[in-house]
Amino acid sequence: MRLRTLALVTVLALAPVRGLARPWKGITPGQSTQADVVEKFGEPSTKAKRGARVVLAYAGEQALEGTKQAQFHVDGDGTVQEITVFITEPLDAETIEGTYGKPPQKTFVEDTFQKVWIYPQQGVTVYFAKEGHVAALSYTAGTRPRKTAAAEPGHAAAAAPAAAADPADRTTPQPAAR
């Protein structure tokens, strides 16, 4: 029971405000820098390049409270764009819905068919394990809803809403190798 409570508190602490990134342990996607992460948590267990980003991973003895591993994805300008958290205590779908509501987008990882829930305005992506429980959560700055052309007087066509990322391009986040 204590571990489940700790996991729920971790998820609630990670929950961002609609359309704005909420700081997680003092780090805010879209605002904080790589230097901020290192200053706050020390040198990472692993530092790896993934595409155009550098990923700072804190795992093992350096794992942050409530996590198996936390990854800070930093862009070429040194700004944290995403935080991926591998939680210690698995959560169920009901807990996630209780925290974030019904997911506006549901998809799956093509290679493994594991389900993924996306909350674009909140900047939250939830990755489920094959067993059905939550394995990881990813946090970004989130998106604000756009006005559609149809909502404006004198316009007949509606503009497509902004998408956080193409769900088909999603892969299950993987803990960094140590």
Describe this structure in words.
- With 178 residues, the protein is α+β, with helices and mostly antiparallel strands.
- It is 16% helix and 29% strand.
- The protein has three helices and eight strands.
- A hairpin with a 5-residue loop joins strand 3 and strand 4 (80-91).
- The protein is globular and about 35 Å long.
Which key phrases capture this entry?
single chain; 178 residues; alpha+beta; eight-stranded antiparallel beta sheet; globular
Could you give the topology of this structure?
Layout: H1 2-14, H2 34-41, E1 46-50, E2 53-59, E3 67-74, E4 80-91, H3 93-100, E5 105-108, E6 115-119, E7 124-128, E8 134-139
Antiparallel strand pairs: 1-2, 2-3, 3-4, 4-8, 5-6, 6-7, 7-8
Figure out the total of helices.
3
Radius of gyration using CA atoms only:
17 Å
Distance between the termini: 30 Å
Q: What's the β-strand tally? A: 8
Q: What's the rounded overall pLDDT mean?
A: 77
Unreliable runs, pLDDT <50, ≥5 residues? 1-19, 147-171
Helix content: 10-25%
Along the chain, the helix and strand elements come as HHEEEEHEEEE
Which range does the strand content fall in? 25-35%
Please tell me what the overall shape is: globular
**Could you say which structural class the secondary elements and strand pairing correspond to?**
alpha+beta
With strands numbered from the N-terminus, the spatial order across the biggest sheet is 1-2-3-4-8-7-6-5
Q: Describe the biggest sheet?
A: 8 strands, antiparallel
